[in-house]
Write a structure and sequence with these properties.
Length: 294
């Protein structure tokens, strides 16, 4: 007998602005579950399989929450495409993890305006995401009328409907055939800026960091953080250099103690065009796969 639900999209709700309404103090809080979200979008419950997984502000998601979500996505992928409603604050990080550790037709979406706004954008985004899930072949973000690859996608505007963009990047192969735990690993982001203290890197090491991402100057220079970076590399801790500049990516060409080219010879890795948060998630996924294979 043929399963009539095969290939029917599964919608997993996690909270975020798309589920938010204003409380008595006027604060936005995630209150609307999946049944209400489907109703808002005019999607008949029979057209999808749906369930609530989380109900939180995505800025509060930790790696244990992400592990649980990835497991839910992986399980749902066994019966068809998946749509995830998600807060925009950390959507690019979850999108990276989904791309690296799950793959396949998974679409993330959300909203810039809450459900009780006079003109909410979430319902249209959800409708678009459900439609796109049946067309895409790899993880994507559908938002503001655009469909973007999950690998490299980033939030570029705090209020505009078209909140996300993505550079044209070659997508690496998926790291694992099923999710591996991220919880228990620690990768810190250390910012480079005028007058930065190399002890910021050492503090991350002392706190047990398994890896470090430097949000570097320009093309990948770390400035006075160089001594701390050198200490990390000597200790066998991977260091990835991402640029704090929105476009152009890392080009390790400068010499000197804090120059990217000098540190490349010492073993730093380039994040290319990934943002610091994306580079952190990429490194976390790599470390998780390595840990699982030991």
């Amino acid at each position: 007998m043929t399963d009539s639900t095969a290939d029917t999209p599964t919608v997993l709700a996690t909270g975020g602005t798309i589920s938010c309404t204003s409380d008595a103090d006027g604060d936005l809080v995630p209150t609307r579950g999946i049944t209400a979200l489907l109703d808002d979008a005019g999607l008949p419950p029979s057209s999808v399989k749906a369930r609530d997984v989380l109900r939180l502000d995505s800025s509060t998601m930790d790696l244990a929450d992400l592990d649980g979500l990835l497991a839910e996505i992986h399980d749902a992928r066994g019966t068809g495409p998946v749509v995830v409603t998600h807060g925009t604050d950390s959507m690019e990080e979850t999108a990276m993890a989904v791309d690296r550790l799950v793959g396949g037709p998974v679409v993330l979406t959300g909203a810039q305006r809450p459900a009780d706004d006079p003109a909410p954008d979430g319902p249209a985004n959800l409708r678009d995401a459900v439609a796109a899930a049946q067309q895409v072949v790899s993880p994507s973000v559908v938002f503001g009328g655009r469909t973007l690859p999950a690998y490299g996608v980033r939030k570029v505007h705090t209020t505009a409907d078209a909140a996300f963009d993505a550079p044209d990047l070659a997508r690496p192969t998926v790291l694992a055939s099923s999710p591996v735990p991220l919880a228990g690993l620690r990768v810190d982001i250390v910012a480079a800026y005028q007058g930065a203290d190399p002890d910021a890197v050492r503090s991350a090491l002392d706190s047990g960091a398994d890896g470090i991402v430097v949000a570097a100057f320009g093309s990948g220079n770390v400035g006075v953080l160089a001594d701390g970076v050198t200490d990390a590399l000597a200790a066998g801790i991977p260091v990835v250099v991402a640029s704090r500049v929105p476009a152009g990516g890392v080009n390790l060409v400068y010499g000197g103690a804090g120059g990217g080219r000098s540190l490349a010879r010492a073993g730093i890795r380039s994040a290319g065009q990934l943002t610091p948060p994306q580079a952190r998630m990429e490194l976390l996924c790599q470390l998780a796969v390595q840990r699982a294979r030991r």
